Amino acid sequence: QVQLVESGGGLVQPGGSLRLACAASGTSIEIYTMGWYRTAPGKQRELVAAITGGGNTNYVDFVKGRFTISRDNSANTVYLQMNNLIPEDTAVYYCHTFPALENLYSWGQGTRVTVSS
């Protein structure tokens, strides 16, 4: 079964850190650019970071310097290290290919991140 499973979310205070993981199964992600997306309350899903198969990264402005995307192709896993979290980072975080190849993978359940004191 082809699947993406996100984990690592939780409740964290402003300024805190979390590390998200996305485990892919059913097919190798090695050749794909992978992205972390998020859906904040009342907003549409948006891309926050992407990483090519070779490890080149890109970030949207509002996470630059705070988030780091990485991947372990041997483990078929993508990570998102999130530091200096702010309340505006509260969202459900998902991983997928970039652009999202929905014929390859369905969207997973995501992992919820709540930043609150």
Structure at a glance:
The chain has 117 residues and is mostly beta strands.
Give an account of the 3D structure:
The model has no long low-confidence stretch (mean pLDDT 96). β4 and β5 (46-51) form a beta hairpin. 0% of the residues lie in helices and 47% in strands. The protein is globular. The chain contains no helices and 10 strands. The chain starts with a strand and ends with a strand. The protein has strands spanning 3-7, 10-12, 18-25, 34-39, 46-51, 57-59, 67-72, 77-82, 91-97, 111-115. It is mainly beta and 117 residues long. A 6-stranded mixed sheet has the order 2-10-9-4-5-6, with no helix packed on it.
Task: Please give a handful of descriptors for the protein shown.
single chain; 117 residues; mainly beta; 6-stranded mixed beta sheet; 0% helix; 47% strand
Furnish the topology, listing elements before pairings.
Blueprint: E1 3-7, E2 10-12, E3 18-25, E4 34-39, E5 46-51, E6 57-59, E7 67-72, E8 77-82, E9 91-97, E10 111-115
Parallel strand pairs: 2-10
Antiparallel strand pairs: 1-3, 3-8, 4-5, 4-9, 5-6, 7-8, 9-10
User: What percent of the residues sit in helical stretches (DSSP H or I)?
Assistant: under 10%
Number of strands: 10
Strand percentage lies at over 45%
Q: Which structural class best describes the helix and strand composition?
A: mainly beta
Helices, by number, come to: 0
How do the strands line up in the largest sheet? 2-10-9-4-5-6
Largest sheet: 6 strands, mixed
Give the helices and strands as they follow along the chain.
EEEEEEEEEE
Low-confidence spans: pLDDT under 50, at least 5 residues? none
The residue-averaged pLDDT reads 96
Form type: globular
Distance between the termini: 39 Å
What is the rounded Rg? 13 Å
